[in-house]
Write a structure and sequence with these properties.
The chain is α+β, with helices and mostly antiparallel strands. The protein is about 65% helix and about 10% strand.
């Protein structure tokens, strides 16, 4: 085995190499670090690389494996053994005539609770699929918001370029007011660069990528639009159906924990199937159905120490708290949805008023600027910032309702679910190097 110090040094050198590679990538980005993505391409990359979605896939695989494990209990286990004995005074006889055995055993456990286990596993699997879909929707909404944020950033960059040109023209006199204005402009420019850097980082986190420059095709983005009149929240077939189903699964899971605990009060009957050795060094392979032994046992654990009772009390206390939290969460979601409708109505009304007033305001500014050029820049900047702020707020509200809307998700979800098998195959290949001796 490799000495511990040498293994630590080898691991440190490996991580150091990765660190230096990442440092060089940031300092000298190559063409391979840049990418341009359409909406469909970004969705595909997110489906494949997003770690949150990968964990959702793993959770489904884990639950499905749990269902298969119920059937695997009926597969006989095989145990191969070698034994020998010798006198310490005759070490030369060690392992001179060892005994070989192969034994088989099936531990069936309590067959009477088999239907309940199947039922519970089915509910768990349905819940895993529902939670996975909710996770997929949340990550897709994040991606959509980032696309729209990129659009607003690009528009803001174009406006900053125009503003800089106007300032340079006005700054010919180089008075104190112009200098202050230029300083304010430079601060806005720095804030824009910070926002762009944050945007790139968020996109890389979402796609599990390491691009230094990301460009997105806004024209490929599906249009998302709601009006307050569209939002009939009483129609639960369209609004909030998935979220309500997830909450129902949480409630059923809690009931299942109570059922399992109460079942501990009942007697348990266990069944085992065993055979004599299937192979010995003296008789070779042998198997006779008449030698198969079915053994059963029943035990009834009386709760004399109160362990089951205490577990039930903990479950009851947890249920009391969880019910309160669930009601609170539901009230908050309903409150946020209703407030969202009012906010949407207000934002759309403000955008309409701004569009109506903008033309006259700009015309007034153009007249005013002949006397005071600085007022043109300040006025146009205020209008532009207000417009971007309203659009950003509208996008946020649209996507919040999109998360609850059943109408526009079927195609995307089917595409994600349909690609799960290929995604898992690819991940299995990438994980092939992982093992207990991978670093030895």
């Amino acid at each position: 085995m490799t000495p511990a110090e040498e293994r630590i040094e080898t691991s440190r050198l490996k991580i150091e190499e990765q660190y230096l590679t990442a440092l060089e990538r940031k300092e000298y980005p190559g063409p391979e670090e840049k990418v341009e993505l359409t909406w469909e391409e970004a969705i595909d990359k997110m489906m494949v690389g997003n770690t949150t979605l990968i964990q959702a896939d793993f959770r489904i695989v884990q639950v499905e494996d749990g269902r298969k494990q119920i059937w695997r209990r009926f597969i006989p286990s095989l145990t191969a053994s070698v034994s020998d004995s010798f006198l310490l005074g005759n070490l030369s006889d060690a392992f001179d005539s060892p005994n070989y055995r192969i034994r088989s055993f099936i531990g069936l456990g309590n067959l009477f609770d088999l239907p309940a286990r199947f039922y519970q596993q089915k509910i768990t699997l349905i819940g895993a699929h529902l939670n996975a879909e909710l996770t997929f929707r949340q990550e897709t909404v994040r991606l959509y918001r980032l696309f729209r944020q990129r659009q607003l950033l690009d528009e803001q960059r174009e406006f900053l370029a125009l503003e800089e040109e106007l300032i340079r023209e006005i700054q010919k006199d180089r008075n104190l007011r112009d200098a202050r204005r230029l300083h304010d402009f430079e601060r806005r420019q720095e804030r824009w660069k910070e926002r762009e850097s944050q945007w790139t980082s968020q996109m890389n986190d979402l796609l599990m990528s390491k691009y230094t420059q990301i460009r997105v095709d806004i024209d490929s983005l599906p249009e998302l639009h709601y009006t307050p009149e569209d939002l009939n929240l009483r129609d639960t077939e369209r609004w909030g159906h998935l979220q309500l189903s997830v909450m129902a699964m949480e409630d059923l899971a809690e009931q299942g924990r109570f059922r399992d605990t109460y079942m501990r009060y009942l007697p348990r009957v266990n069944f085992n199937v065993s055979t004599p050795p299937l192979f010995t060094d003296t008789d070779g392979f042998q198997f006779d159905v008449d030698d198969v032994r079915l053994s059963s046992s029943a035990n009834w654990r009386l709760d004399t120490r109160g362990d089951i009772g205490r577990q039930l009390e903990r479950l009851k206390r947890n249920k009391y708290v969880n019910d309160w939290r669930r009601d609170r969460r539901q009230d908050e979601e309903v409150k946020n949805l209703l407030e969202g409708i009012e906010q949407l109505r207000e934002v759309q009304e403000n955008r309409r008023k701004l569009e109506e007033a903008k033309e006259f305001y700009i015309e007034w500014l153009s007249v005013e600027s002949s006397q005071n050029p600085q007022s043109l820049i300040e006025g146009v900047t205020r209008v532009r910032e207000l417009e971007l702020s309203l659009r950003e707020e509208e996008i946020k509200i649209f996507t919040e309702f999109w998360l609850f809307d059943e109408k526009n998700w079927d195609e995307l979800v089917d595409r994600w679910v349909g690609g799960r098998e290929k995604r898992l195959e690819r991940i299995d290949k990438e994980m092939a190097y992982i093992g207990p001796f991978s670093n030895f």
